[in-house]
Amino acid sequence: MTQGNHPVGDTQWPLWEVFTQSAPGKPHEHAGSVHAPDAEMALQNARDVYTRRGEAVSLWVVPAEAITASSPSDAGPFFEPGNDKAYRHPQFYNVPRGVKVF
Amino acid sequence: MSENHTASTPSPEDAERLTAFETHVGNGGYVEPKDWMPERYRKQLIRMMSQHAHSEVVGMLPEGNWITRAPSLRRKMVLLAKVQDEAGHGLYIYCGTETLGVDREELVEALLAGKAKYSSIFNYPTLTWADIGAIGWLVDGAAIVNQTMLAKASYGPYARAMIRICKEENFHKRQGYEIMATLANGTSAQKAMAQDALDRWWWPSLMMFGPSDTNSPNSAELIKWGVKKKTNDELRQRFVDLTAPQAEAIGLTIPDPDLKYDEETKHWNFGEIDWDEFWTVVKGNGPCNKERLEARRRAHDDGAWVRAAAEAYAAKRNGHNRATAA
Amino acid sequence: MDANAALVDFLLGLGDDRLVLGHRLSEWCGHAPILEEDIALTNISLDLIGQANLFLSLAGDLEGKGRDADALAYFRIDREFLNHPLVELPKGDFAFTIMRQFLFDAFGYHLLQALAESGHQGLRGIAGKSAKETAYHLRHSAEWVVRLGDGTDESHARAQSALDEAWRWTGALFVSTPAEAALTKSRVAPDLGGLEPVWRASVNEVIQNSTLELPEAKPPAGKGYRRGDHTEHLGTLLAEMQSLARAHPGATW
User: Fold this and answer.
1) Most buried one in A33, A99, B277, C63, CB count within 10 A?
2) Beta bridge partners of B200
3) pLDDT of B255-286, one tens digit each?
């Protein structure tokens, strides 16, 4: 695949996706990607790239190929709620005025 | 991730998708990696994003030139942090580009083979310490004007990378301006150094915004697709309006006899750019074009055995073990 | 030498080690084998120079001659620098940089942990913070030693060659001057010789995992480096590092 002076198979290492947790109790969120040859280096690289300014208390790294994503054509069946499922939402339920539920 | 479209006769289905796409983008909608997109959009974005990433990486070289001579520990650390940020920015944008279905290795190869462009500003030499100040103030200043706009680009991964970059970029401009202010307020030798750097970096900074809109073939299309939101000339004017008072505030003179504030338009009028110089440098004949690429090629070639070693180790171990050290 | 002067020299040594090593690492900026490693090495360089700044500032304060960290860094001559020769050696190839870093990090980590218990409060504070940073540096360099040693034939050969070269400079790390021995007595600094076994154990473990071989001979102890005996490399390093500051003495940057 590569041309020029570089040995065949010279790569920039596999791609990893990075998730950071900004503070205890918060969810891990996608921060971006890094390249790394293995999990330990991916963790270190992610730490160096995405937490320099104290942005995280915890890191996850995942090989990019391990991620399965929904595709836009799935959006209808996957994500658009039917109008008949309002019972999933708290506003559907009546309680006497003035009563605290929590 | 994205399918291969041929650029030949679009099918009626494609024409319909294209209209829907342009409407979506026209309404400020985002495009994500798995969405359908015109092949031309994908190609333009790969070109634009990879050029941007290459610029960040090549940009480490002119500034990196002064790390070993930085005149105080604080300046040394701040400059190191800035150049490190630039590596990080290149990294964010390369990763964003990869979502369009291209490997970083391909992008790097294109740069080193001289096939890809990067911002011409980095083809100028950093001759004095004041150049470091000028770069932070003017070059990063110009980049901020451009990037603030790009943070609203229609392509999701690019916009997100740009938001992160914009947050980090402000310190770059401030440190540069602070260096210039300190020099302008220093010894006469320091003040002369600052003025000389401004004299050399002013016009190239204006050229960073690219050709005038009448000469910019890509601009119109990029604006239609929500990747660019403003024209080159609009951005350039904004930069001049911001920067002219900043020079005055520290007692330095911008090397443009035609620079003058216009009370009616509320803008600063400025002189003609030397477009011959612009095209000469863009075409590869600037002062440092060869040196910049040679330095990147050397780093890449010298590093091949390192990259290979890490991969060989991972292959042997399937990436599970971790050596304990302490 | 009085106790204060001994402590000042000790602090200068700690600062100079980190300034010179941080400087060597910074030479990789823009030239590393891959973008992620550019960021990693620069991160370590920054930490080290930051530590140097703290140690040199404290040294200047205690010295009481009005010299701050910059005055010490930019206006002392090479004969006055108190770093170990190990850190001033040129950066070499990536294998040498990593190996030298690893051997120094393993030493620095144990030294700083010990100094975090120092009887001197100022020193204790700096050491505690620096030890955390150094733990991360050690993790980085150790993982690379293993990957280079147990990577390809080429990386193994380069790593072995680097180890053979860097090893012979490590003996000096564990030799105390009489002034430092006095600091040990007053519980300001640990006994450097006493750190050697724990350093060796750390190093051995990683070297074994890397399939490399420790040179058998015990490395020669340096003597006199603390009195300013350096290699020829420090002179050129400082000539570059100090050139601009010296060209404008008294200027503010």
Assistant:
1) A33
2) none
3) 999 999 999 999 999 999 999 988 888 888 88
Interval C42-72: pLDDT, tens: 999 999 999 999 999 999 999 999 999 999 9
Residues of chain C with C-beta less than 8 angstroms from the C-beta of A34: 36
What's the domain count of chain C?
A: 1
B57 residue type, one letter: V
Q: What is the CATH number of the domain that holds C113?
A: 1.20.1260.10
Q: Which residues of C167-198 are buried (b: 16+ CB within 10 A; e: fewer)?
A: bebbbbbbbbbebbebbeeeebbbebeebbeb
Contacts of A40 in chain C (CB under 8 A): 143
d(CA B321, CA B298): 32
State the nearest Cα–Cα gap between C110 and chain A, in angstroms: 21
Digit-coded pLDDT (tens) for B7-24: 556 677 788 888 889 899
Q: Percentage of residues in chain C with pLDDT exceeding 70? A: 97
The reported pLDDT for the residue numbered B1 is 42
Residue C253 lies in a domain: no
Instruction: Determine whether the interchain pair C143/B129 forms a contact, defined as Cβ–Cβ distance below 8 Å.
Output: no
Per-residue pLDDT tens over the stretch B162-180: 999 988 888 898 999 999 9
Indicate yes or no: CB of A48 within 8 angstroms of CB of C35.
Answer: no
Q: What is the mean pLDDT of residues B177-185?
A: 97
> Nearest chain C Cα to B182, which residue?
C253
Kindly write down the DSSP assignment for every residue of C163-194, as one continuous string. Answer: HHHHHTTSGGGGPPPHHHHHHHHTTSS--HHH
pLDDT of residue B296: 96
Residue C124 within a domain: yes
Cα distance between residue C142 and residue C132, in whole Å: 16
Please report, for residues B70, B88, B240, C24, the alpha-carbon distance to residue C80 in angstroms, rounded to integers and kept in the order given.
20, 37, 49, 19
Q: How many whole angstroms separate alpha carbon B272 and alpha carbon B203?
A: 10
Q: What is the C-alpha to C-alpha distance for residues B187 and C35, in angstroms, rounded to an integer?
A: 38
pTM: 0.92
Per-residue DSSP letters for B212-269?
A: -GGG-TTHHHHHHTTS--S-HHHHHHHHHHHHHHHHHHTT---S-TT-EEETTTTEEE
Report d(CA B48, CA C58) in Å as an integer.
49
User: Quick check: B307 and A5 CB within 8 A?
Assistant: no
Question: Is there a domain that residue C191 lies in?
Answer: yes
Q: Which residues of C touch B71 (CB under 8 A)?
A: 74, 244-245, 248, 251, 253
**Domain at A2-68: CATH code:** 3.10.20.520
ipTM: 0.96
Asked if residue B323 has pLDDT above 50, the reply is no
Q: Does C224 score more than 70 pLDDT?
A: no
Model pLDDT, residue B149? 82
Residues in chain C, how many?
253
Output the pLDDT for position C219: 76
Output phi, psi for C230, to 5 deg: -115, 180
State the residue range of the domain holding C206. Answer: 3-247
Length of chain A: 102
Which amino acid, C149?
G
End-to-end, the C-alpha distance of chain A in Å comes to: 62
Residue C19 domain-assigned? Answer: yes
Could you tell me the residue ranges of all domains in chain A? 2-68
Distance separating alpha carbons of residues B38 and B21, to the nearest angstrom: 8
Q: Does A69 touch chain B (CB under 8 A)?
A: yes
Are A37 and C147 within 8 A, CB to CB? yes
Angstroms from A40 CA to nearest CA on chain B: 7
Q: How far apart are CA B4 and CA B40, in angstroms?
A: 11
Whether the CB-CB separation of C230 and C88 falls below 8 Å is answered with yes
